[in-house]
Amino acid sequence: MSADPLADRPEPATPSHRAESYSRLVQSRVRELEKSGEVLLAGRGHVTTPRHLHVMALIDVMRSGLAIPESFARDIRERRFAACVIDEWSELSLDKILGRRSELFEIILSNYYVAERWDDREMDAYVGRRVHPSWVLKPRAHPIEGATFKELDRRRLVEVGLAEERMRLAQAGVETPANAPTTEDEAAALLSGAR
């Protein structure tokens, strides 16, 4: 008996052993980050302890015309989270989903810097689209007050470049020294011309 050529095949969306291994890797990284405090994993609120909102719930609130809940915005402004982990930058701007740029980008990037890029050679998860927790943001020692979107985005791009550089070095077997400046400090020095 031959399979119906028009029937959906579940295999692409069915978790494999490799996907299970990747899931365990993400969980172990989150547990490591949680040693410093609470972690926000925007695309997987069920992985962290305590669990958090999923970014899609926040998007639903914002699409209805409401603002980011003040309690959530306050937690970010007060840098309550030891780390925020995102899959991709569009999770912060949300412009394609909302039809406008979200204030989430400014709130987070004023208070968190791009600290780390997880290995981009790892397998993506499949949840209707390919996703991969990729970027670790940590609380800024020096929050950025009153910056424009363009200024914050410029700082983000420099921090992204530094995090990417460190990831490539790690892939080549070269570890970043423990006493190296943070990407926040290094980006600030680069942008001020002090490096």
Would you kindly provide a written description of the structure presented here, covering whatever features stand out?
The chain has 195 residues and is of the alpha+beta class. It has eight helices and six strands, in the order H-E-H-H-E-H-H-H-E-E-E-E-H-H. The strands form two sheets. A four-stranded mixed sheet has the order 1-2-6-3. It is globular.
Briefly characterize the structure:
The chain is α+β, with helices and mostly antiparallel strands. The chain has helices spanning 17-34, 55-63, 70-77, 90-93, 95-98, 104-111, 149-171, 183-192, and strands at residues 39-41, 83-86, 112-117, 125-126, 130-131, 135-139.
Radius of gyration: 18 Å
Q: What string, H for helix and E for strand, traces the elements in order?
A: HEHHEHHHEEEEHH
Mean pLDDT, to the nearest integer, reads 85
SS-based class: alpha+beta
> What is the count of helical runs?
8
Distance between the termini: 69 Å
Largest sheet, spatial ordering of strands: 1-2-6-3
Strand content: 5-15%
* Helical content band: 40-55%
Count of beta strands: 6
Biggest sheet details: 4 strands, mixed
The outline comes out as globular
Unreliably modeled segments: none
Describe the oligomeric state of these chains in a short phrase: single chain
Attribute tags:
two-stranded antiparallel sheet; 8 helices; alpha+beta; 195 residues
Topology, pairings included?
Elements: H1 17-34, E1 39-41, H2 55-63, H3 70-77, E2 83-86, H4 90-93, H5 95-98, H6 104-111, E3 112-117, E4 125-126, E5 130-131, E6 135-139, H7 149-171, H8 183-192
